[in-house]
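Tutorial handout. Part one gives the primary structure; part two gives the three-dimensional structure as tokens.
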Amino acid sequence: MDDKAKYTDWNKRSDIKAELKADLIVLLAENDYPPIDRDEVYKEIFEQSKLFIRNR
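Part two.
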């Protein structure tokens, strides 16, 4: 996440957001989460990631 968040406009650039989502999905899959694939889970985690980056 840090390498994507170094761009000040990361939240406005769709290419960076798409890369971040893909990285998160891969990371979650490597750790066997979620047990059942659901788009809502990925959306929730992506929103949490955006908040984490903004507030750190």
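Part three, for discussion. The CA atoms of residues 33 and 56 lie 24 Å apart. The chain has one domain: 2-55.
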